[in-house]
Amino acid sequence: MSQYAQKGATLIVVLILLVVITVIGTMAIRQSMVSLSVATNAQVQQLLVQNSDAALYRIEDQKTVVRNLARDGMFGYLRGVNNKNKELVFCYRADQAKLNFFQLTRASIVEWASGDTAPKNTALGSNGFCQISNSGSDNFFTSGRKLVMTQVAVKYSTAANDKPFKYSARGTDTKSAKIDETEKVNVYSVSVMPGLSTASTTDINACLRNKMNEVTVPESDVAVTIPADSTVSVTACLTALNVPFMTQVSEYTIVQAFN
């Protein structure tokens, strides 16, 4: 009888050990998966930041400042009272090695005109928007690896809380000196990694094409019902789709200086 009891006890001990080993193995696998997810998220975040930074560095290149202030430059094109609520949009593409960083022919305008119920994007065509394309004819990504897309938007600030003469150069009078008015311009660099998202290509493209980064609803002389979806920004749109993205905003002051 004692021999049979010992054999039964051995079986129970073995079963308990198997359960313990299974639990430990499961916990180790889960821990490894969590560590892998953390590492992947860190890499994704780093890639998004680097691509947004790369676009801003190109904008801040001193060699191109004069060119950007020209009438067909990224800053000069929107200067003026009539363009305050418009966003000039272009895609930072991999084939920019052969082209200039910014070309007006590869830019688009997103604007919300008085009386409209939503922004429109037809003023300059649709060449400026980044888009996920399966045709393979165009590479809208920032590199040949086709991981990250970076879309840049330029908009002169319409913030109502800015103080008068806040951005003016000290010791100058724009009227008597006959110099240009000092203005503040915002540049939005939005980097997206669509390959890690379950959102549809159509929805991601719609966020980049149809939304504004700084949504400004214009005043209208007629009663207009604004749909809630129309006031959604690019950032909010991508957030709702759970798309990995990074938005960086840089503020620049356009000042006419004399040496």
From TrEMBL:
Top-rank taxon, per record: Bacteria
Domain (Type 4 fimbrial biogenesis protein PilX N-terminal) ranges: 7-47
Any Pfam family: PilX_N
Protein name (database record): Pilus assembly protein PilX
Originating species: Acinetobacter cumulans
Lineage: Bacteria, Pseudomonadati, Pseudomonadota, Gammaproteobacteria, Moraxellales
